[in-house]
Design goal:
The complex is a heterodimer of chains A (131) and B (107). With 131 residues, chain A is an alpha+beta fold. Chain A has helices spanning 15-26, 32-53, 90-94, 105-112, and strands at residues 2-9, 61-68, 72-78, 115-119, 122-128. Classes of the chains: A alpha+beta (131), B alpha/beta (107). Chain A binds chain B through residues 12-13, 15-16, 19, 32-33, 36-37, 39-40, 43-44, 47, 96, 98-102, 104-105, 108, 111-112, and chain B through 20, 22-24, 52, 54-56, 58-59, 62-63, 65-66, 83-84, 87-88, 91-94, 96-97.
Amino acid sequence: MYTQTIILQTKIEELPKLYDWLNEQLQNKVDEKIKARILLVAQELATNSMIHGNAMDAQKEVKIEVVYFDSEIKLIITDQGSNDYSLPSLEESLQMDILEEGGRGLKLAMRLAKEIKKEKSSLHITFEISD
Amino acid sequence: MGIHTTHKNDYTIVQVAIERFDVVNMQEAKDAFESILQQNSKIVIDMSKVIFIDSSGLSVLIGVLKRLKTKEDSMLKLCGLNTQAIELMEITQLNRIFDIVDSCDGI
């Protein structure tokens, strides 16, 4: 097991840094389909952390850790907000309003990850490496 | 902004020439489509340059679809989606709402 970390300022313009960094980290470690899922979930949840967790306060940061196991990869996304929200259940994530224009990020993540847990100000997202 | 239009027969082909169609450029994309939709109602969106789309990119496409539904004699097709975009469309069931064609050739 080993961990790699990136810290972003709370600015939407920081998100390409996360994509580029994570894309490089995952190169040759997972297949393209799993990589695409991890990239999407990381971006959706880092965006949520900036907007809802840190309330777009540029003084606050979002930390993203990637933890590598033999058969799994875990993302740990930590912000500096109050985190007074709860995760949707899988049933709720299945009940997305198809034509709703917003509010999809967390529900999409629930569908794409093997497991998402909330621990204090962090989300722990687990992916199986093989599909 | 990498959104370009060409015209072919009755259609306006809108090429999204952005590698990452996401929250970072969502507002610019919305504004570009808003301008396009003011004068066009038969739209083909060419996604072949897009390598990554997130929920914000999807929301732009949904906005275009909703806007066109309010216009008479309108049409919307999506073409050139990569495997990431197709999986996202399937998960969200938007593949049942959008008219998705594999290739942009021949439109």
